[in-house]
From TrEMBL:
Disordered: region residues: 130-151
Highest classification ranks of the organism: Bacteria, Pseudomonadati, Pseudomonadota, Alphaproteobacteria, Hyphomicrobiales
Domain (Capsular polysaccharide assembling protein CapF C-terminal) ranges: 21-136
One of the Pfam families matching this protein, by short name: Polysacc_synt_C
Enzymatic class: isomerase
Domain of life: Bacteria
Annotated GO biological process: polysaccharide biosynthetic process
Coiled coil: none
Participates in a stacking interaction with the thymidine ring of dTDP-4-oxo-6-deoxyglucose (site feature) positions: F130
Biological role: Catalyzes the epimerization of the C3' and C5'positions of dTDP-6-deoxy-D-xylo-4-hexulose, forming dTDP-6-deoxy-L-lyxo-4-hexulose.
EC number: 5.1.3.13
Catalytic reaction equation(s): dTDP-4-dehydro-6-deoxy-alpha-D-glucose = dTDP-4-dehydro-beta-L-rhamnose
GO molecular function: dTDP-4-dehydrorhamnose 3,5-epimerase activity
Name of the protein in question: dTDP-4-dehydrorhamnose 3,5-epimerase
Length: 151
């Protein structure tokens, strides 16, 4: 994938898709990946058309996500004061038919929405397990002021 702006610490890596007459396998996260952030939790997120899940960022958590059904519009925004890409944003679509993993470091704002008329499904790997009592996150509404991406 080609981007105009790349946010420091964010990556989009093609996934290996192995197909045969029985179906396919895609390797999403491997412990021997050079960008493996550690294991905390894996969860699956289904999003209905018209729903926006934005904005949020984590203080310590590193996210990896991949679309496994449909298409997902991903938005990222860097407002980290010490970042070399302060002010950069990324707005792109990932597709289950062209598998990639998107790595999102701590403190980068991110969100996503289904791109299309059918529900999308993301698999998300985090390097920390979600703590429901003390979430490692900050949230803002998808239409909050100060974000360069309009959902």
């Amino acid at each position: 994938m080609d981007f105009v702006d790349i946010i420091d610490g964010v990556y989009v890596r093609d996934l290996r898709l192995i197909t045969n007459p029985k179906g396919s396998v895609r390797e999403f996260v491997r412990r021997d990946d050079p960008d493996f952030p550690g294991f905390g939790q894996v969860h699956i997120v289904e999003t209905m058309p018209g729903i926006v899940r934005a904005w949020f960022r984590h203080y310590r958590q590193f996210d990896q996500l991949s679309c496994i059904r449909g298409k997902v519009r991903v938005g990222l925004y860097d407002d980290r004061p010490d970042s070399p890409t302060l002010g950069a944003s990324m707005d792109f679509v990932i597709d289950a038919d062209k598998p990639v993993v998107v790595g999102i470091p701590p403190m980068v704002w991110h969100g996503f929405a289904t791109a299309g008329e059918v529900p999308s499904v993301l698999v998300q790997h985090n390097n920390q397990a979600f703590n429901h009592g003390q979430p490692d996150e900050e949230k803002r509404p998808h239409d909050a002021n100060g974000f360069p991406i309009v959902w």
